[in-house]
Amino acid sequence: MATTIKDVAKYAGVGVGTVSRVLNGGESVNEEKIRRVREAIEALHFVPNKNASKLRRNASNVLALLVPLVNHPFFANLAYYVEDEADKYGYSILLISSQRRIFKEEEILRRIRRKEVDGAIFVTHFEHDERSLEDCSIVSIDRPLGRDVPYVTSDNYEATERAIEYLIGKGCKKIGYIGSKPLVESEVLKREEAYLDVMKKHNMPPRITNDVILHGEESNVAARFLDEYGDVDGVFASGYTMAQVLYETAAKRNIRIPEDMQAVSYDGSFEQWGGGRRLTCVEQPIEEMARAAVRLLIDKIEGKSVPVRTVLKTKFVVGDTTK
Q: What residues contact residue 210 under an 8 Å CB cut-off, 6+ apart?
């Protein structure tokens, strides 16, 4: 005869309700009881009936993660930690690449309303009418989607300001900014704002190329930047991919980093680049951002009050691309 939840409760010396709460995340259950229940589950080889649980809660136990590209360093890292955190709460992740395909995002919203997906984490370049987001459990990364949609971001302005000041402290006199501007309102825009404010503070003319592009079009931007500002002795790149492409483009033009041009990047998706050298960067807490987004989403699904804006601190990492 198959082991039942009552068997687990008896073995652990707790009530059936306690076992049920442990199976659904362990909320309001102390650590000792959680340990006993888990030991009982393992000893009795108990396999919970997840389908029955889903039907009772009218839930799918599926969360969607929408990113522009799945093979982008930042998004790949984000997806790894989102899946890992969601798994702790019994959720599976539906990963979707939505660059150039707004219909993918619209379909997820419809699936949330049909209860086929419980909620979604959006990293989006598209605008959505706030009415289309009503009654949908959604969390965003880096941008406000609506008044009641929580989002997680990093301290974009302060981190960029520190990075530019660092380049100035390293002797840079002609500092450029290269980036890819979001199509929509986003906290990422604060990076350009900080750069321009620091340039104004130090009476330095801005040297900036920050175009609206799609991921994968960075090479053209890097070439245009160096064509126009070939005299820069320092550069801030708004993302890891842009920094990598800039490095490769500079190498082809015999511009040495950091000897001729010092470089700092926002992102820090990888510890090393360019033959094993460390990139001087503003390192986003990608793992913390991912886990925070999942927890916010689950709280929203469960009807709890959540903050609209969550800002996480970055870390400045000195590598080999500055002197």
A: 177, 178, 179, 180, 181, 192, 238
**Cα separation of 110 and 47, whole Å?**
32
Quick: pLDDT tens for 177-202.
Answer: 999 877 778 999 999 999 999 999 99
DSSP label at residue 206: -
Chain centre to alpha carbon of residue 40? 37
Which positions ≥6 away from 112 have C-beta within 8 Å?
Answer: 64, 118, 119, 120, 136, 137, 138
Residue 183's φ and ψ, nearest 5 degrees, are -75, -20
Residue type, 254: N
Q: Which residue ranges form the domains of the chain, and what is each CATH number?
A: 5-48 (1.10.260.40), 57-153+286-310 (3.40.50.2300), 156-284 (3.40.50.2300)
Q: Output the pTM of the full model.
A: 0.78
